[in-house]
């Protein structure tokens, strides 16, 4: 039983577990950090609580948590921050705070560990700045390594994301602006001193992707996925940006003196037309008129509340499927398999004679009604997710069985009629086609916690993608297990 008595704002899985180890996650909300793990297949409705941290400050409210580890001992460390404007590092095994990072002048809204160095952590704040910190014990007297501020944001920053190379950071917040910052290799010569590196301007800045507060961003390799409170989730590209190229120098940072430009970029001159070097499912196919290209929108209704965050599972192996998951205001989870979009793109570009023999397994045709009146459409799901909803303030565990969003094969007691070509094409396009960037793709699967109402605040995936956890309002945590059909 999880003992949390207020809204849960954040959830994060320990990312350094070895294959085969049970995944461990942390949930943050109010004064509490709860560390737990799914009990597993032997008892799929249960969650085992490992440790609960209760902060001594009555006014603390943890908005975000993430994980790192002690490089010397391998001990797991939970990093949490929020209303108190301090980053607190908890040693899970010892059950105590081992370090506090101070310097922000307002609430801390997001934390992210550098993917290439577990001792580097970045934070965003209401004070309009991003700070990058070193957790190396040798830097403990002066842990702030870099401050990103000045020409980037003029309002509260709500979200950030590291690029997988550790050289770029995305940030966004109240003012709708999304920035991409270029970092030096950290730690640098200023780390550990009282003169941290200052970065005054991002190399890319736009307020044109969204029309509302941006509360979640993520890199998808070199592409970007972002979400605003009342906008759909968008997959888009910064034209000319490639992590394979050398990072741009500080002198190329676009300044903010031109107030008429809603988008500024160091990666494409304003007069240029960008054409990608290679074309694939996620590449722009027409020269855009701006510095970025909108690729896909995802239809996520009932997700318009402020500060609700999607989760992106990026598999550790190239052959795995990347899954985007989003929570709603009404106990609903939505899933998109991005590998299906690429497969559908390739399938749609095959000659018609090859399409008959090369159709992906998940694309099942819609057939007209048979003489018994049954509808026989089917799309086999890649994702099968039974849902277990655990209300932490209660001793009772309620669970809902998995319900398929997509129509499943039905037993046919009569003769099948012909495939309805128009309905089949419309159904497939509504979920998988990237031909029209203004069209919002429907979820590939949905799960609803029937009879329970809570607002999902953040989604997190275990390292291998076997588990998906949602932290939400009303003291709820939803735990999803996943397997191939």
Automatic annotation (TrEMBL):
Gene3D superfamilies referenced in this protein's UniProt entry, alphabetically: YVTN repeat-like/Quinoprotein amine dehydrogenase
Pfam short name (any one): WD40
Biased composition (Low complexity): 262-271
Region (Disordered): 244-271
WD repeat windows: 101-136, 150-183
Keyword terms of this UniProt record: Repeat, Transcription, Transcription regulation, WD repeat
Superkingdom of the source species: Eukaryota
Similarity comment: Belongs to the WD repeat ESC family.
Protein name: Uncharacterized protein
Originating organism: Coleophoma crateriformis
